[in-house]
């Protein structure tokens, strides 16, 4: 069996068209959605992600504001920038690019973003709402994965989903969203003993470990759906995921590539959350 390739580029395109028409409708009604991205420091990967976010936001027809701050900025100064954006009615989504320099308390900064503009879905209030299935902004990467599964016709209810990784941004919310769609969910992590005994049971395997080509065909059941969240460099410096794609694609039924899989969906879902936020702002007359 050779796996079907689930392309985040293709699915993302489809969703971005839907977003564009939502944005146009909103603009016709007098409200232009706006996204502000704060970048602290000069991490090259973060610079690339922020540049791509800016380009995608403009392509979607939204207002894009980029705030670039030096790595030496104090926590207090950074919080002031967030507060200004919280009070700006032309901005409906605020994102602080992570990671932040080590002298800044990431949790404090996330908490300072208005939950109504937290299009990353990282604010504790929004995390709580997600946990109990209330409508809120869902974290972009796991939200994007759910869209990929659903739009690829992959059934979730009753399936055994195994999530490797327990980060607040990906692993934990991923399991929760799968659970809400009636999957049976197992979390594995760096302290899990005999990892393969769990991953071999997975109908849907989510790899979010951060280790190049860690998941091999020895970890995978025949016909499983493989979602690779990893972004690493291999021994030749080439971008690769957490999954050993070439060997696993021979036994999986479907697989996401790296690049071109989960990554592009992260930015797509950010745009979707920003549109959702602007639509709410319009209803309560907080959009100008
Ligand atoms: N505030 C946030 N910070 C970070 C997030 C986040 O969701 N919110 N996620 C990551 C980085 N990230 C977005 O910010 C992100 C990572 C990767 C991609 C992507 O499209 N990857 C491409 C490959 C890109 C390349 O060539 O290097 C792919 O997989 O095809 C988009 C967004 C950490 N920080």
From TrEMBL:
A Pfam family: THF_DHG_CYH_C
Locate the Tetrahydrofolate dehydrogenase/cyclohydrolase NAD(P)-binding domain: which residues?
A: 139-280
- GO MF terms, alphabetically ordered: methenyltetrahydrofolate cyclohydrolase activity; methylenetetrahydrofolate dehydrogenase (NADP+) activity
Which EC number applies?
1.5.1.5, 3.5.4.9
| Domain of life of the source | Bacteria
Q: Where is the Tetrahydrofolate dehydrogenase/cyclohydrolase catalytic domain?
A: 6-120
What pathway is this protein a component of? One-carbon metabolism; tetrahydrofolate interconversion
Keywords for this entry? Amino-acid biosynthesis, Histidine biosynthesis, Hydrolase, Methionine biosynthesis, Multifunctional enzyme, NADP, One-carbon metabolism, Oxidoreductase, Purine biosynthesis
| Reaction equations catalysed | (6R)-5,10-methenyltetrahydrofolate + H2O = (6R)-10-formyltetrahydrofolate + H(+); (6R)-5,10-methylene-5,6,7,8-tetrahydrofolate + NADP(+) = (6R)-5,10-methenyltetrahydrofolate + NADPH
* Binding locations of NADP(+): 165-167
Describe its function: Catalyzes the oxidation of 5,10-methylenetetrahydrofolate to 5,10-methenyltetrahydrofolate and then the hydrolysis of 5,10-methenyltetrahydrofolate to 10-formyltetrahydrofolate.
Q: How does it assemble?
A: Homodimer.
Q: Which family does it belong to?
A: Belongs to the tetrahydrofolate dehydrogenase/cyclohydrolase family.
Tell me what this protein is called. Bifunctional protein FolD
Q: What is the lineage of its organism?
A: Bacteria, Bacillati, Bacillota, Bacilli, Bacillales
- Gene name linked to the record: folD
């Amino acid at each position: 069996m050779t796996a079907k390739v689930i392309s985040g580029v293709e699915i993302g395109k489809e969703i971005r068209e839907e977003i564009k028409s939502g944005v146009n409708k909103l603009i016709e009604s007098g409200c232009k959605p706006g996204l502000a991205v704060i970048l602290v420091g000069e991490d090259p990967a973060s610079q690339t992600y922020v540049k791509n976010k800016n380009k995608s936001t403009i392509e979607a027809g939204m207002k894009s504001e980029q705030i670039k701050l030096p790595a030496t900025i104090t926590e207090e100064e950074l919080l002031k920038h967030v507060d200004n954006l919280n009070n700006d009615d032309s901005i409906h989504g605020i994102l602080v690019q992570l990671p932040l320099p080590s002298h800044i308390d990431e949790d404090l900064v996330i908490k300072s973003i208005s939950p109504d503009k937290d299009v990353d879905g990282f604010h504790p209030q929004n995390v709580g709402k997600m946990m109990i299935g209330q409508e809120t902004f869902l974290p972009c990467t796991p939200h994007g994965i759910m869209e990929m599964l659903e739009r690829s016709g992959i059934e979730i209810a009753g399936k055994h989903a195994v999530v490797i990784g327990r980060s607040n941004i990906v692993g934990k919310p991923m399991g929760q969203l799968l659970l809400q769609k009636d999957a049976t969910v197992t979390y594995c992590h760096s302290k899990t003993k005999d990892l393969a005994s769990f991953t071999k049971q997975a109908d849907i395997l989510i790899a979010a470990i951060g280790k190049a080509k860690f998941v091999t065909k020895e970890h995978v059941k025949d016909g499983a759906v493989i979602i690779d969240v990893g972004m690493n460099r291999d021994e030749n410096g080439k971008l690769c995921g957490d999954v050993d794609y070439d060997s696993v694609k021979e036994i999986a039924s479907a697989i996401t590539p790296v690049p071109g899989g989960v990554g592009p969906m992260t930015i797509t879902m950010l745009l979707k959350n920003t549109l959702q936020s602007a639509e709410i702002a319009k209803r309560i007359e907080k959009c100008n």
